[in-house]
């Protein structure tokens, strides 16, 4: 159990260190949950939980002073508890919402503390100390990652039995209601994401994908590959447009005068 708790903490640290090396989206549930399932010996369940939680957290984006639910702590702990207790993705989704919402206070606290290091970095920059700026940069990323690892590791080590007792004490009708609500959350996440990215120019492709899947029977992978091709053509990824030589009008040089 101690080894598993240590590995779960390392997975959470890995997710929190994402912004330290560029935005690679390692902190998303679709990455962290399979890793959690791998270290706990149940990769298929980790993949299933990761896909379900990723759909739920798609629309969870911070705007201004709003801090969204923490998908790292919520995803890692919900997936680890579901695997340990032998439950399915529905249980993981039901657990992820309160855990991620509770972790918001932890994230907000880190933002307040890290502002001190930001001012320290500005002082080093004014002095021209490159090493000082580098050091504060890694402290700003390393300290929260270490704390996230400790929180997830300790919560998994001491909280599995408590979570199991709570799940067993909840009446069946309440848990069934949570399961239904959890199944609705992925659709809500996709709808929120659609409001952010859809426009009049792109909405036609949404209906095209729906028609391909519903009426033509094209599987989801086929629709996704078709979307990749359309995107490459739309944004000229291969640089095929404009490769020809421009035509030059023939005429005497004296025509320019």
From TrEMBL:
Membrane topology designation: Multi-pass membrane protein
Any single GO BP term: phosphoenolpyruvate-dependent sugar phosphotransferase system
InterPro entries in alphabetical order: GatZ_KbaZ_carbometab, PTS_IIC_man
Transmembrane portions of the chain: 92-117, 138-158, 178-198, 205-230
Pfam families: EII-Sor
Keyword annotations from UniProtKB, A to Z: Cell membrane, Membrane, Phosphotransferase system, Sugar transport, Transmembrane, Transmembrane helix, Transport
PROSITE patterns, per database record: PTS_EIIC_TYPE_4
Any one Gene Ontology cellular component term annotated for this protein: plasma membrane
Cellular compartments annotated: Cell membrane
Name of the protein this chain belongs to: PTS sugar transporter subunit IIC
